[in-house]
């Protein structure tokens, strides 16, 4: 296990270095931030002075090396638009995105897995057919359209839930601003969480169902039934456990997707998270924020992949033996 973790950590460092190089190279060509930071009447000398202050006149290699070195120390510079340290901006927006992604993940996993098990066990029932038909909505409709429809129904028509914002938040130990402890924060979270998690819910449900159908046709399940093992034990102790490896893979990737790519949902609901911050940075060519967002997204994905690999080894003994080899 130790050798496996050391190897994976080394691979993670390499991935982050490559992502940092790609981020720096890509965002060099998104536009000139100086044009958005000065007035139209600014002279060439003023523009050059600001460019020198931001070290944008240094050679590209020097800028790239400085960027990677600073990123390794969690220093992403100062935002061109907000004139604040990028770390502070992300730290202020990160709780909103993590809470939204957490609730959406709980919704997708907590509802998707039971529905997948039920539809896999009762594949010919009328309720199963209804669930599978309704699940097409989560697969077919784009996220922004789902969000707009929910806003129209529950905010504009019924006036049950707010259509934008995060609601009231409270500080936890002065380190975390959360809306999970206030009624308005919880109400504001419902619609964006459903919008963000609906596609993942459908994906998890359909994957669990297909894996359950596959496992229930295997010989050891037939042998268990012949031995008189109860249906509950067959379905949940044997069949469901053997469907978890591919399901965990998808769940790990999808949780990373929820956190890193909640941009559309946050824009539709004006949710003050990292996705909305990234959109504002793109509009202003705020390179430090965009680069930091990309690196943070990459860090989330590689961390989740590591967690998934560890869960593999805990669930499937065959993977533990292969890892030792």
CATH topology of the largest domain: MetI-like fold
The amount of helix comes to over 70%
User: Could you give a short account of the major beta sheet?
Assistant: 2 strands, antiparallel
The CATH architecture category of the largest domain equals Orthogonal Bundle
Overall form: globular
Contiguous runs where pLDDT drops below 50 for at least 5 residues: none
Q: How far is the first residue's CA from the last residue's CA?
A: 11 Å
Radius of gyration based on Cα positions: 24 Å
Q: Which structural category fits the helices and strands? A: mainly alpha
| SS summary, helix count | 14
Major sheet strand order: 1-2
Helices and strands, in order, run as HHHHHHHEEHHHHHHH
Number of domain units: 2
Strand proportion, as a percent range, falls in under 5%
CATH superfamily of the largest domain: MetI-like
Number of strands: 2
Oligomer: single chain
Text of the CATH class of the largest domain? Mainly Alpha
Q: Give the rounded overall mean pLDDT.
A: 82
Summarize the structure.
The protein is an all-alpha fold. The protein has helices at 2-27, 33-37, 44-53, 60-72, 86-121, 126-140, 143-157, 183-215, 219-226, 231-260, 263-268, 274-284, 287-315, 317-324, and strands at 170-172, 176-178.
Walkthrough of the structure:
This protein has helices at residues 2-27, 33-37, 44-53, 60-72, 86-121, 126-140, 143-157, 183-215, 219-226, 231-260, 263-268, 274-284, 287-315, 317-324, and strands at 170-172, 176-178. Helix 7 crosses helix 8 (183-215) and helix 12 runs antiparallel to helix 13 (287-315). It has 14 helices and two strands, in the order H-H-H-H-H-H-H-E-E-H-H-H-H-H-H-H. The termini are close together. The chain has two domains: 16-72, no CATH class; 87-324, MetI-like fold (Orthogonal Bundle). The chain has a two-stranded antiparallel sheet. With 325 residues, the chain is mainly α.
